[in-house]
Amino acid sequence: MRTGVWLVGARGSVATTSIVGGLALRAGLAGPAGCVTELPELRGPALPAFADLVFGGHDVVTTPLTKRAEALAAAGVLPGRLVAALPDELAAVEDELRPAPTGATQAVRAVAAARDLIGFRDRHELDRLVVVNVSATEPPAHPHPGHADPAALRAALAGPHEVLPTSSLYAYAALEAGCPYVDFTPSTGARLPALHALAVERGLPYAGHDGKTGETLVKSVLAPMFAMRHLRVRSWSGLNLLGGGDGANLVDPGANAAKVESKQRVLGETLGYVPQGETRIDFVEELGDFKTAWDLITFSGFLDTRMRMEFTWHGCDSALAAPLVLDLARLTAAAHAAGEVGPLTELGFFFKDPLGSPSHSLTEQWVRLVNFTRSLHAGQESADGHAG
Question: Which segments constitute the Myo-inositol-1-phosphate synthase GAPDH-like domain (predicted)?
């Protein structure tokens, strides 16, 4: 299944690492470490092969993709040998990157974005095209309540006012172009009634929000442990230090608040109560494309004995996120081919604040993901059998 992966924020660190990684996997220059879909429990015929992935995207910046890859290699995010080995492949992707659409109204910009998507799909004769948002985090948005259905939204977009945040405008353009949409950020994206209705109207799936790659991944494992052992968490405080473009973007109080809210949700929904403490995210330019998180957990056990736990997470966010971007593109393409429509709640395993997920427990999310993927493979095998 020839599948396009259109990245919003295509010249950013996560997108560039995803592109280099996908090209390296296609060329047999790297292994699939970190790619969940390559585990035996998930691998199968419904998923497009790495060799079938074709990359394109939008971005507001113009730095050549090869230069971004070289900078990431110099920072230790990805191997320099891969950048050196893939000049033609990176140049081909560069040819498919487009500037962020411009225009007097959001309707004009949405039409231009959809035109880019349709042109990319037609040029490469793609079976599916999945749009993945890996752009900068936005402040929380409060769209007008009157724009609750596709028709009202279309009319509003043609007016002089900015009706949708950028992530939602890209989601709208993707759905209008017949493309599933995945939001790897905590931005609003497709999480609006009118966009859900549009997805249903167009028969498309969508997924999100906010890729789970570091501290929150650990929280989603530890919080169920405390709950299942009937240990009372008294406080849980976290400090996240980020460098790079993501950290710089989160200096904005609105974007920072959106990210913190996404990270904190797992505790209240898993424990059934919110312990004392908060999560902070600070920008430390010196860290570059790496991040460090330190958490302090205090809890009480039998006879109210007080105890504590600390952990430190030091990782490269782009290297952790990129394989998940490839996973989500493959799974969403397979879901689209299988006729899935609306929010893909079974993909909650990948997100901090997943759409409609009944549980934040990583184990429970894993079971749902495995069962869902197996059903996709079974459907593909059945279709192949009938075709044969």
Answer: 214-318
Which residue ranges make up each domain of the chain?
Answer: 3-211+319-384, 215-315
Which residues 6+ apart lie within 8 Å of 61 measured at CB?
11
Q: Please give the structure tokens belonging to residue 275.
A: 């312990």
**Burial track 3-13 (b if 16+ CB lie within 10 A, e otherwise):** bbbbbbbbbbb
Domain 3-211+319-384 fold: Rossmann fold (3.40.50)
Q: Which of 155, 159, 156, 191 is nearest to 175 (CA)?
A: 191
Q: Give Cα 140 to chain centroid, integer Å.
A: 17
* Residue-by-residue pLDDT tens, the chain, 388 positions: 899 999 999 999 999 999 999 999 999 999 999 999 999 999 999 999 999 999 999 999 999 999 999 999 999 999 999 999 999 999 999 999 999 999 999 999 999 999 999 999 999 999 999 999 999 888 877 666 556 789 999 999 999 999 999 999 999 999 999 999 999 999 999 999 999 999 999 999 999 999 999 888 999 899 999 999 999 999 999 999 988 766 666 666 766 666 666 567 788 888 999 999 988 889 888 888 899 999 999 999 999 999 999 999 999 989 999 999 999 999 999 999 999 999 999 999 999 989 987 788 899 999 999 999 999 999 998 888 776 5
Q: What is the CATH number of domain 215-315?
A: 3.30.360.10
Compute the distance between CA of residue 144 and CA of residue 146 in angstroms, rounded to an integer: 5
Sign of CA dihedral 348, 132, 43, 21: negative
**How many of the other CB atoms lie within 10 Å of CB of 374?**
14
pTM for this one?
0.92
- For residue 209, whether the previous peptide bond is cis, meaning omega lies within 30 degrees of 0, is yes
Sequence-separated (6 or more) residues with CB below 8 Å from residue 75: 288, 289
Q: Residue 282: helix, strand or coil by DSSP?
A: strand
Long-range residue pairs from 65-72, CB within 8 A, at least 24 positions apart, any chain: 65/10, 65/11, 65/16, 65/19, 65/90, 65/93, 65/94, 65/97, 66/90, 66/91, 66/94, 68/11, 68/12, 68/13, 68/16, 69/16, 69/19, 69/20, 72/13, 72/16, 72/17, 72/20, 72/289, 72/318
